[in-house]
Amino acid sequence: MTFPPGSTIGIIGGGQLGRMMAMAAARLGYRCHIFDPHEAPCAAEVSALFTRAAFDEVEALRRFGEQCDVVTYEFENLPVEPLSVLGDKLRPGTRSLAVAQDRAEEKSFIESTGARVAPWRAVDSLDDVRQAVADLGVPLVLKTRRYGYDGKGQAWIRSPEDAESAWEDIGRQPAVAEAGMSFGAEFSVVLARSADGEARAFPLSRNEHEGGILRTSTVPAGPAINALAQGAVDAARAIADALGHIGVLTVEFFACADEAVVNEIAPRVHNSGHWTIEGARTSQFEQHLRAILGLPLGDPGLVPGGATMENLIGPDVERWLDIVCEPGAALHLYNKGDARPGRKMGHVTRLR
Ligand code: ADP
Ligand code: MG
């Protein structure tokens, strides 16, 4: 099924990913309808329609679905059950969401596709945490099973005595305990998969994080990462196939000695793919739309040279005027208002 220009695309979640998706949709002649509980989400500002409702309001979701030709999401911490009223209009489907939003499900699932993850245990109590320390050693990181993002909901255990304070720090919630990996670099595979199973990956980006938040993404990723590219893209593709995923899927990796180890997946467009807006023949946002609309996938190739994307986090956004003055720098601001520390306010992409 192909949805022609003029169709309405529903986007659940109204953050910057939805905003950039809606801008890509407008360029292709589609209208977007944002569904989000906030008063003025930044994606609604650039979209034709906006429904303000909680993510679990089934009646509101049903009406929203009736007004859209196809529905997607830009945010994975959504209650899955209410989305069933959207039926098969929802792309990607609820399976991708359910797997990605629970770190224990996610890790078991990734292992079932044959890919490697860091050694891990599901933990539900302080005793479990102590057992994980005994089994896996330190350093170890606790991550809440649900609702973590940008390094939130995580606590490191660097010596066995930290077990109790780390368990307190994450709020004594069901979690995974994961071995701290020593890696040369981090990178991600952003790929799109269409309903008929065709998949295309963007060139890999090397990602630098600070305090659990993405700082920069650089493409080409460099020889050490490119040596792992084939295996990583194959692994990402196997994950997308096993999910029956339609749309963009992101797989984050640690580049360990001779092997790529999966960190986590996101069933959506991703911050580490923002460089594609200027740096690839087709942006990740357009590619996602092409996949969910039943259009042929675009060329994910890199423009000559390469690109670096830098996030503008919290007060970084005050540099906007300098960046606007910088020749060749592509500034993106999300108009999210308050520049709280740690909040993603915008990004800048520089081509080489
Ligand atoms: P989030 O959902 O917040 O992005 P991640 O699991 O990706 O959570 O963790 C954020 C960052 O923390 C990673 O990109 C990496 O830099 C660091 N990190 C997470 N898990 C590990 C680990 N097991 N070993 C080493 N570093 C890790
Ligand atoms: Mg991450």
Keywords summarizing the entry:
single chain; 352 residues; alpha+beta; 4-stranded parallel β-sheet; 17 strands; 27% helix; binds adenosine-5'-diphosphate; binds magnesium ion
Task: Give your account of this protein's structure.
There is one protein chain. The chain is α+β, with helices and mostly antiparallel strands and about 350 residues long. Helices cover about 25% and strands about 30% of the residues. The strands form 3 sheets. Strands 9, 10, 11, 12, 13, 14, 15, 16 and 17 form a 9-stranded antiparallel β-sheet that branches. A hairpin with a 2-residue loop joins strand 13 and strand 14 (about 260-265). The radius of gyration is 20 Å and the shape is globular. The structure holds adenosine-5'-diphosphate and magnesium ion. Magnesium ion binds near residues 252 and 264.
Brief characterization of the structure:
By secondary structure, the protein is of the alpha+beta class. The chain is built from 11 helices and 17 strands.
Order of helices and strands: EHEEHEHHEHEEHEEEEEHHEEHHEHEE
Q: Which cofactors or ions or other ligands sit in this model?
A: adenosine-5'-diphosphate, magnesium ion
Residues in β-strands, percent? 25-35%
Summed over residues and divided by their number, the pLDDT gives a mean of 97
The span between the termini is 39 Å
Helical fraction: 25-40%
**How many strands appear in the DSSP assignment?**
17
Number of helices: 11
User: Biggest sheet, open or closed, and with what strands and sense?
Assistant: 9 strands, antiparallel
| Secondary-structure class | alpha+beta
Low-pLDDT ranges: none
Principal-axis shape equals globular
Question: What Rg do the Cα atoms give?
Answer: 20 Å
